[in-house]
Amino acid sequence: MKKILTLIPLLFLTACSTTPTKDELMSGDAYVQLSFDVNEQGRTENIVVIDSSHNGFFNKKAIEAIKKWTYKPKMVNGNPVKKIGEKAQLDFKITDK
Length: 97
What we know:
97 residues; mainly beta; four-stranded mixed β-sheet
C-alpha cells in the first residue's frame, strides 16, 4: 500500500546557519525520501531520511508524519510479520500566501 501525503506547512525561519533562506525555501517544492519498517502491529518504526531537499528543513515534519501512519500488517502463515525497508517520498507544496 503506497501512501502519498502532501503537506503545506507554515514556515518559520530562525537565525541558524543550516536554515535555508526564504529565497531558498521558495525556490521550488520540497521533498523528503524516507525508509522505515512496519512492525507486527502495523506501526512504522526505524524511520530514516534517505534524501531531502532544502537542506533538510522538512525532515522533522516528514518523520513526524510517517510515525502516524498505520498499515495492515504483512501476514505469513496467518501470523503478522515485520516488513523491513518500506520507502516513501513526502512532497511539500510551497506556496507564497
